[in-house]
Each structure stands twice: as C-alpha cells, then as structure tokens.
Amino acid sequence: MKKEDKEMLRMEALIRIKDGGLLHDDGNRRIKLLLKTLYWLNMRVTKVGKDTDIIVAVREKIPSNAHKLEGLPPEKRKVVLATGYRIIPPFNEVLAYAKLAIERFVLLIDPNAKVEIDFPNFPFPENIQQIEYNSFNTFDNNDFKENRSDFIPEEIMAKVDDYIDFVMKPSEHLLGICHSEWEMKKLILLYIFHLHWLSPAQRHPNIHFD
Predict the structure, then answer these.
(1) Is 18:117 a contact under the CB 8 Å cutoff?
(2) pTM for the full model?
C-alpha cells in the first residue's frame, strides 16, 4: 500500500482539553505521558499546542506494514497485514474511548477535577505554543537516575493498574507487552504521584521477561 494512499485514507481530528492546567508541569512531562497513552488507542499524535487549553491533533493509526485497506463504509474497514486481517475500529469510537482515557488520566492527578473535552471543528491554531514533535516520546533520563523503589500504597497502585488496563486492554496483549506496561506504570507513578518504582525487569536483570 503506497504511503500517499494511506495518508488519503487516514481520518483525523482535534481533541481539546479545556483549561488543562493540571497537565502543565516542567518539561511538559504530563502532557507527553498523556500523548503516550493515546498511542495505544489506535491514534497517532501529529501536533500539540498548549495555552489555557491543550489542543491535540490526532490521526488514525494504520500499521506501517499494511499493504491493503479493504471495506466500505469506514466503520467496516479492515487492514490486510502480512500476518492476516486486522479490523480498524470506527474512528468516532476511537475518539470516544480517547476522551474517557483523558478524563481518567486527569482524575489520576486530581480525583476532584472537572474535565471538559471536546472535538473542535476549526483548523489547528498556528498561533498557539506548540510542543516539538520529536519531544513527544522523549523524557529526561535524569528523572530515572535514582535506582530505588519507594513504598507505594496499594490504593495508588490499584488506580495505576486500572488505568493501564483501560488503555492497554488485557484481551489485546501481545508477547512482550509487559515491558510497555511497566514503562507506563513507572512514568505515571513518577510524573503524577512523584514515586519511584522499579519494574520486575529492573529488579531481576538476569531474568528474561516476555
């Protein structure tokens, strides 16, 4: 499947998080972490702008190894991969699920927060302060210098595990997914709860985990 054909077929939208002050911190760490969760919801972030509101431009994520796209209308499309078929969920469903994921993310920061999210119809505002694309998945290595695990209350760990299960559905787990889950857990615990945590792979470097 040609790259230009994929670009034509991809659906896109804007997500606006109104008054996203809880997501503002040094180095845009919480915003980047939120964007990382959106990756697992079948969407690719193309632009991010922050002001009083946070605006995220997203596109449907079609696997890079897709060589054919079948099925019309859009809600019945399926991608043909070398390994077989994969159904592409309707984009409006993906957006609705992303909205719930963002709400849950903000409530991890402040359980009493009021979250307002919509999908504006206007073009991405060019006069808004943008976060560089290359920095979306880049976190400061200095944040992870401390090789320790803090005491983490069961209530906090349960909230984090529940959120990760919501974003990375257990029914869709693939071999090696545990490493992505642990990375997400480590980032959430550090950037939201200010707690250091070592994954099983870090605690047991001589054991191979899949």
Answers:
(1) yes
(2) 0.81
Q: Are 61 and 7 in contact (CB under 8 A)?
A: no
What pLDDT, in 10s, does the model give residues 78-87?
Answer: 555 444 555 5
What gap in Å lies between CA 188 and CA 191, rounded to an integer?
5
The position carrying tokens 């991809």 is 10
Report CA 76 to chain centroid distance, whole Å.
Answer: 24
**Would you call 24 helix, strand, or coil by DSSP?**
coil
Tally of CB atoms within 10 A around 6:
17
Where helices occur in the chain by DSSP H, the ranges are: 3-9, 29-39, 91-109, 154-167, 177-191, 200-203
Measured CA to CA in angstroms, residue 194 lies from 37, 144, 203 at distances of: 18, 12, 19
Is residue 69 within 8 Å of residue 81, measured between CB atoms? no
> pLDDT digits over 36-83, tens only?
888 878 788 888 998 889 999 998 776 555 555 555 455 555 555 444
User: Strands, DSSP E only, in 88-153?
Assistant: 116-118, 129-130
Q: What does the block give as tokens for 100? A: 């719930």
CA angle 83–85–87, rounded 5-degree value: 140
Burial of 62 (0-12, 13-18, 19+ CB in 10 A): buried
Query: Residue 179 has which token pair?
Result: 């490493």
- b vs e for 132-156, b when ≥16 Cβ sit within 10 Å of the residue's Cβ? eeeebeebeeeeeeeeeeeeeeeee
Q: Which amino acid is at 141?
A: N
